[in-house]
């Protein structure tokens, strides 16, 4: 899958530390906690960054990954600790970056990150 014009524009707008390497499609799951409601389960476009950071986007191209969320970014801040943000499309068509919170790498599955309100897994 080649990145869309939307994705390229998005990456240009990101701060320099968040410039990503070549991405790929893989399986992912985003779960709302503590209810365990599944927000997204299936394929995602995975954009890795050095140090274990990554972003997840809709695998099929432009549009929302789930609900009005276009991208979820897990930015590794230290050993097994990350800050998670979401790019949310507003009703007026503008997008805003929303801090979802701190996450810890799951002890049960190292491909997963868990915060107070979410679990994000990318395999």
Tell me what you see in this structure.
This protein has 123 residues and is mainly β. The chain has one domain. The protein contains 1 helix and 8 strands; from the N terminus they run H-E-E-E-E-E-E-E-E. A hairpin with a 6-residue loop joins strand 6 and strand 7 (112-114). The longest helix has 9 residues, at 5-13. Residues 15-20 have low confidence and may be disordered.
Category by helix and strand content: mainly beta
Average predicted confidence as pLDDT: 85
**Hey, roughly how much beta strand do the residues contain?**
over 45%
- Major sheet: order of its strands? 1-2-3-4-5-6-7-8
Cα(first) to Cα(last) distance is: 17 Å
- So how many helices? 1
Largest sheet: 8 strands, antiparallel, barrel
Helix content: under 10%
Q: Can you write the helix and strand succession as a string?
A: HEEEEEEEE
Tally of individual domains: 1
Number of strands: 8
Task: Using the alpha-carbon principal axes, give the shape.
Answer: globular
Oligomer: single chain
Radius of gyration: 13 Å
The residue ranges in which pLDDT falls below 50 over 5 or more consecutive positions are 15-20
What's a quick, concise take on this entry?
The chain has 123 residues and is mainly β.
């Amino acid at each position: 899958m080649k990145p869309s014009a939307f994705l390229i524009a998005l990456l240009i707008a990101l701060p320099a530390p968040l410039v990503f390497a070549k991405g790929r499609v893989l399986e992912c799951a985003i779960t709302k906690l503590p209810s365990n409601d599944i927000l997204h389960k299936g394929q995602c476009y995975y954009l890795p960054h050095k140090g274990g950071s990554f972003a997840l986007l809709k695998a099929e191209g432009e549009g929302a990954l789930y609900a009005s969320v276009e991208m979820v970014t897990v930015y590794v801040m230290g050993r097994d600790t990350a800050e998670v943000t979401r790019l949310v499309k507003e009703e007026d068509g503008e997008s805003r970056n929303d801090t979802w919170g701190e996450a810890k790498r799951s002890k049960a599955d190292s491909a997963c990150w868990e915060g107070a309100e979410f679990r994000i897994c990318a395999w």
